[in-house]
Design brief:
Blueprint (H helix, E strand, L loop, with lengths): L5 H4 L24 H43 L33 H17 L2 H29 L4 E5 L5 H8 L2 E5 L2 H9 L5 E4 L9 E4 L5 H4 L9 E2 L7 H35 L2 H8 L2 H33 L4
Parallel strand pairs: 1-2, 1-3, 4-5
Antiparallel strand pairs: 3-4
Length: 330
């Protein structure tokens, strides 16, 4: 078999000719000029670098945008599942639910906040059993002291009045039968006055030495009404001392007021402690701390308790003074 010659059947390739102006020589056919080759390579490199820069910038921008969106989505994830108080982002005040607090409607200053806390502490303590029991004990104690003093004075005055007379001598028994009082003979006016100061007699009847003036009746610190009613005409006695509280009454009264003050302070302190425990158990303390300054809250609590202490002591002092006046101790 005859082998076909591949070289004879293949068509000869067409010569490469540049699209520009043909070269002068045969060697220049299909070969571009050197300057045009360099320019084309430079333009291609610049275009490639511009494409790379554009691609890099676009990739960086897309990465930053994606990161920002992921951060925002991560920051807001789960906000619907937790209370708005615990969320990191502060919500719009207009969107918050109404709490009914005073600070929601007006700006509360330190003085106003302290007054609010003081008023609340006072009213709460006044409704507590500790305050009511203490007030009842104080009132009953003062009334018992007043009643016992009045009863003692009545029993003392229910006896036979005693009176000192100067130079009565043997006529004392006759005067006792006429006046219905017990007569004590005194040598002179100073001796009769001494008997009155020592409390041995209720009063002293001193006649005028000249016999022309009115007799004088001397008493210690209060009018002897039971004795004066038996004399005719009825006169008033001259007091040797201004009416005041006797030492036998002043000393027990002083210790009673001290004990009363300690009782009131201890009771109201206990009421304040119980109120703090109740507020802490019901989480009211957190609401108060979030609404008003802690210093105003503390000053309000102290002011409220001190106000109640002063009120109780003043009431007890007024009732005691009235009782002493009614019983004739002052």
């Amino acid at each position: 078999m005859a082998r076909k010659d591949n070289g004879a059947n293949d068509e000869s390739p067409e010569p490469l000719v540049s699209k520009g102006t043909a070269g002068e020589g045969i060697d220049d056919l299909g070969v571009p000029v050197d300057d045009e080759v360099i320019e084309d390579e430079t333009t291609a490199d610049e275009a490639e670098s511009d494409d790379e820069a554009t691609a890099t910038g676009a990739s960086k921008g897309s990465t930053a945008t994606a990161k920002k969106e992921s951060d925002e989505s991560g920051a807001t994830d789960g906000l619907d599942d937790v209370p708005f108080e615990l969320a990191e982002d502060t919500p719009d005040p207009d969107e918050l639910p109404e709490t009914g607090l005073v600070s929601e409607f007006v700006d509360v200053g330190n003085r106003q906040a302290a007054w609010l806390v003081s008023n609340r502490e006072s009213t709460t303590a006044m409704r507590s059993p500790y305050f009511l029991v203490t007030a009842a004990v104080i009132i009953l104690g003062v009334l018992a002291a007043i009643i016992s003093g009045i009863v003692a004075d009545v029993q003392k005055e229910s006896g036979t009045p005693t009176m000192a007379m100067v130079g009565v001598g043997e006529q004392a028994q006759m005067y006792e039968q006429q006046l219905g009082v017990k007569i004590t003979d005194a040598k002179d006016a100073p001796a009769a006055e001494k008997l009155v100061r020592e409390g041995k007699v209720d009063a002293a009847f001193i006649q005028d030495p000249s016999g022309q003036g009115q007799p004088t009746i001397i008493a210690l610190d209060k009018q002897p009404d039971a004795l004066l009613e038996k004399l005719a005409p009825k006169t008033e006695a001259t007091l040797l001392k201004t009416p005041a509280v006797d030492s036998t009454v002043a000393t027990p009264l002083l210790w009673g007021m001290v004990a009363l003050s300690l009782l009131v302070v201890a009771t109201l302190g206990t009421a304040l402690y119980q109120n703090l425990r109740l507020e802490k158990r019901n989480r009211i303390t957190e609401i108060i701390a979030a609404t008003i300054p802690p210093r105003a809250s503390a000053s309000g609590r102290i002011t409220g308790m001190l106000t109640l202490v002063i009120v109780q002591l003043v009431v007890a002092a007024v009732i005691t003074e009235l009782g002493l006046s009614l019983s004739g101790k002052t």
